[in-house]
Design a protein that fits this description.
The complex is a heterodimer. By secondary structure, chain A is an alpha+beta fold. Chain A has a single domain, classed as Cytochrome p450 (Orthogonal Bundle). Chain A contains 16 helices and twelve strands. Chain B has a single domain, classed as Ubiquitin-like (UB roll) (Roll). Classes of the chains: A alpha+beta, B alpha+beta.
Chain lengths: 401, 108
């Protein structure tokens, strides 16, 4: 019998054999432990994300019970969802995020520079954990000196112990600290000239009656958290896969134009977001089984991405594949709003890593993994490389000059 | 509310009300028009809300951005009047708009 437990630490190490078993032997799996359905094939997950009238978001998307949550784009359905998403969707298209590329690059270089002379660094702790929050702070107009504090809180929000199946106290406390920070930031703005950033945009929309104050807080919360950890893990997973698949790394070193495709392939093959939860608003049938109204279900996106019914040779990491139909960012109306920004950050981050340390090698003994039922990736990816003197002149000699 | 007519490649026609400021992609998805997928949720990143706009309407639409044109390169059966539905906001001016859909979206 297939047994799948999204909280099991051993499963986090390598979930793919279990995902395959689910797809092949139990495509409509029911977990008695967590009282939820698990869909694991590409076609089924794809159908579910499109069928938002059956698979609704209003009871949350996490497996564990959320607490102290404000309404967010992730936890509402149309028409409220459409209204909320519309407010800022235009700020997250590839064209709209492109102007951030230089900032991402400058920050990436600033973060890499202090480590270049030593020839070793932790790709997560020294780099990938910091870059996304720096960009989010910039988008939201938060002070750079607050980055560490904000990152600490957002980390606490998502951190789970093995046995935890509901939001732990540390996560609730951090959630409340974030709300307090947002409230203070908005109050502070009332005393200064209007800024041109996302917070200002949301505050103006609240004034026009387009969203409630709780929805503004919910938006800031989700923007702070959603793009932070997942992007960090994406950069870590990509570093790991390129190290493991040296021929793919060589291809990339020879031809940087493959970078966007390599990012897509990493999202397909080893994307951080394993799954998303939904609740059934009405009965639906999959492979002769009925999922009933009121039931909970999870969509195993990372299993869908390895489905050989959809992808040829799915367990091969092939940076030339450029699979733009993967479910690494989810799909449908609730697909990741920040996907274009994540793609940009991952591309620039890897480009800078390849420039600064083309011969990097991951010290596999130093790898450590985070444990979460929904996000998979490393907390430490130590690398060694040939030291360079570029550290002394981080602002010189680059394409930005 | 503006009415939009979506015509599937099979000839099936859906005439639906689309709330102002919703995109053509959302108008289709919210009203169960099968021929539009909208995989990326409307951030101009997947080309699965590919549609054809009749000539008489094309001039009334804002011209496509560079990003939309780039994504359209991935669209199945691209034609001169191809657009991405997620990049077109429906307004009263577009009441009666006719949108034709391709036989496949790029992830079908």
């Amino acid at each position: 019998m297939v047994h799948f437990d999204p909280y099991d630490h051993a499963t986090h190490d390598d979930p793919y054999p279990i995902y395959r078993e689910l797809r092949d032997k139990a495509p409509v799996y029911y977990s008695e432990t967590y009282k939820l359905w698990v869909l694991s094939r590409y076609d089924d997950c794809s159908r579910a994300v499109r069928d938002f009238k059956s698979f609704c978001n209003k009871y949350g998307v996490a497996i564990d019970e959320a607490k102290e949550q404000m309404p967010t784009v992730l936890t509402v359905d149309p028409p409220d969802h459409t209204r909320l998403r519309h407010l800022i969707a235009g700020m997250f298209t590839p064209d709209a995020v492109k102007p951030l590329e230089d900032s991402v690059r400058v920050m990436a270089r600033e973060l890499l520079a202090p480590h270049l002379e030593s020839g070793r660094m932790d790709v997560i702790g020294d780099f990938a954990a910091r870059l996304p929050m720096a960009i989010i702070c910039r988008l939201l107009g938060f002070q750079r000196e607050d980055e560490d504090k904000l990152r600490h809180w957002t980390d606490l929000v998502v951190q789970r112990d093995e046995a935890a199946t509901e939001m732990p106290q540390h996560a609730i406390t951090a959630t409340l600290a974030l709300y307090e920070y947002f409230e203070k930031d908005m109050a502070e703005r009332a005393r200064h000239p209007v800024k041109d950033d996302l917070v200002a945009h949301l505050m103006a929309s609240e004034k026009e009656g387009k969203l409630s104050h709780a929805e503004v807080l919910g938006y800031l919360y989700i923007l702070s958290i959603a793009g932070n950890e997942t992007t960090t893990k994406l950069i870590g997973n990509m570093t790991y896969q390129l190290n493991k698949n040296r021929s793919e790394l060589d291809l990339l070193l020879k031809d940087r134009s493959l970078l966007p495709s390599a990012v897509e392939e990493t999202m397909r093959y080893d994307g951080p977001t394993q799954l998303m939860g939904r609740s059934l608003a009405r009965d639906v049938e999959f492979h002769g089984q009925t999922l009933k109204a009121g039931d909970r279900a999870i969509l195993l996106f990372m299993s869908a991405n390895r489905d050989d019914r959809h992808y040829a040779d799915p367990d091969r990491y092939d940076i030339r594949r450029n699979p733009r139909d993967h479910l690494g960012f989810g799909g449908g109306l609730h697909a990741c709003l920040g996907a274009a920004l994540a793609r940009l950050e991952a591309k620039v981050a890897m480009e800078e890593i390849l420039d600064a340390m083309p011969d990097f090698a991951v010290d596999e003994g130093g790898l450590s993994r985070m444990h979460s039922p929904s996000v998979r990736g490393y907390t430490h990816v130590p690398v060694q490389f040939t030291p360079s003197a570029r550290a002394a002149h981080p602002s010189e000699g680059g394409r930005l000059a | 509310m503006p009415k939009v007519s979506y015509i599937e490649a099979s000839g099936v026609q859906h005439i639906v009300d689309v709330g102002e400021q919703l995109s053509l992609m959302e108008g289709a998805v919210l009203n169960d028009v099968e021929g539009i997928v909208g995989l990326c949720g409307g951030i101009c990143s997947c080309a699965t809300c590919h549609c054809y706009i009749d000539d008489e309407w094309a001039a009334k639409l804002p011209t496509p951005s560079e990003g939309e044109l780039t994504m359209l390169e991935r669209a199945y059966d691209r034609r001169p009047n191809s657009r991405l539905g997620c990049q077109i906001a429906v307004t009263e001016m577009l009441d009666g708009l006719v949108v034709r859909l391709p036989a496949h979206q790029s992830n079908d």
